[in-house]
Amino acid sequence: MTEIKYHGIKENQIVPKARHDIHKVLLEYFSKQPPGRLLDAPAGYGHLAKHLSSMGYTTVCGEIEPEIFRAEEIECVFTDLNQRIDAPDSSFDYVCCVDGLEHMTNPYRAVEEFARVLKTGGTGVFSIPNYSNIEKRLKYFLNGYLTKPKTEDDYRRAGSNLFNFHNSPLTITLLNLMFEINGLKVAAILRDKIKIKQYLLSPFVLLLKARARLSSQRSREKHAYDLTLKNEVILGGNTLIFITKKER
Predict the structure, then answer these.
(1) At 72, is the pLDDT very low, low, confident or very high (cuts 50, 70, 90)?
(2) Is the preceding peptide bond at 88 cis, omega within 30 degrees of 0?
(3) In a domain, 222, yes or no
(4) Who is most buried in 59, 74, 201, 245, counting CB within 10 A?
(5) What CATH number does the domain containing 49 carry?
(6) What φ, ψ does residue 92 adopt, rounded to 5°?
(7) What is the mean pLDDT of residues 69-88?
(8) Nearest to 114 by CA among 102, 127, 128, 124
(9) Is residue 203 in a domain?
(10) Which domain holds residue 176?
(11) How many domains does the chain have?
């Protein structure tokens, strides 16, 4: 992957709120696309929006805490993705939701809204934690939870704001359902990084893939093995990055 130049913006000015590797992959992807009108929500501190604007994208930002937004030359308005995006239908060429859906109490509504404001033929980019890689599967088997347990004290320390937590630890099959019912088709899945240590668990991956190959076509479709056993997923990094296209 080629190194992204951050257009003269110092990293310590506006840092990514999500993992740096995610922004690096996204900027590499968007550097190869024709610029257009783009919605970035939740926008965080404005790191991604700043760089996309420098690339020629007309960037519109939404954030549930707009006071944290630091890219002064870009407008950022209050947006609660559990409710509604304040924009007309089919008004964006791109929508981008970086590590947002897992924080929603109603992610179905959020995806519905992103699809509504996206033009037919437009591109939706979404990232969520990868709960389907082999490392996470093993941790779930051992610990019994997908995301770290939180207490009421944690909630109080977070300002009693649920959006500070992973309220919806979405599996890849549930997210794919959300996409499908809103006319979004997954065109590609990108990895934020390669976790070398996961390859120590390759024997388990090979066993799972062998079981899938020996299963009937009906069983493979029922369990969505073509999706859940993709190398980008089962041997993927901490994050899944979905590139979707709006078909209707």
Answers:
(1) confident
(2) no
(3) no
(4) 59
(5) 3.40.50.150
(6) -130, 145
(7) 94
(8) 124
(9) no
(10) 20-130+150-195+237-246
(11) 1
